Amino acid sequence: MLRAAAVTLSLVFMASAALADGGRPAGVRLGPDSQLPVPRFESLAAPKVHGRRGPGLDHRIDWIYHTAGLPVQVLEESDSWRRIRDPSGDRVWVRADKLSPARTVYVSTDQAPGLPMRAAPRPESRTVAYLAHGVIARLGACVGGWRKVTAGAQTGWVDKSGLWGGDDCAGVED
Predict the structure, then answer these.
(1) CATH 2.30.30.40 fits 105-164, yes or no
(2) Secondary structure (DSSP) of the chain
């Protein structure tokens, strides 16, 4: 009985040690300014966003994004600035207020006729649409390697291998 209690206590201790402060997995760091996990996925909140070489208005503009909803990965934080990576791999600094926690994905495959969107998260499920390279869709749910997305008026399931920004399902709400 005493041995079983010691084993149980040991398992509880190991499980709690595997979680860092706030119940997050060990090894996940929080941004110093947002207190959110870094890296994480967000999206551009504005139709025009300047991507700068460094965190501040005095840094040169390298990119001007013209696509609200474009998924980006937040890599670093510095006060009110976020260093992001976009679907093409470019890394720039943007103001935090130009980002949204809304999760979107970018169709990265260029297969013909497009990335199949299915009625259910199964390869044999009926195809309801094809998504072309470059389409941005709202991420709705994750089931294994499948992602539920909404593009325009169409909602369905796609294989995550054809998406950028769909590997991590943290923060996804259905």
Answers:
(1) yes
(2) -HHHHHHHHHHHHHHHHTB-GGGPBTTPEEPTTT-SEESEEEEE-SS-EEEESSSSTTSPEEEEE--TT-EEEEEEEETTEEEEE-TT--EEEEEGGGEE---EEEE----SS-EEEESSSSTTSPEEEEEPTT-EEEEEEEETTEEEEEETTEEEEEEGGGEES-S--TT---
For 31-102, the fitting CATH number among 2.30.30.40, 3.30.470.30, 1.10.1040.10, 3.40.50.720 is: 2.30.30.40
Question: What is the C-alpha separation between 136 and 67, in angstroms, rounded?
Answer: 9
| Both structure tokens of 120 | 């259910």
* Residue range 39-84, pLDDT digits in tens: 999 999 999 999 999 999 999 999 999 999 999 999 999 999 999 9
Residue 164 CA to residue 109 CA, distance in Å, equals 9
Q: Are strands 136-143 and 99-100 parallel, antiparallel or unpaired?
A: unpaired
Which amino acid appears at position 19 of this protein?
Answer: L
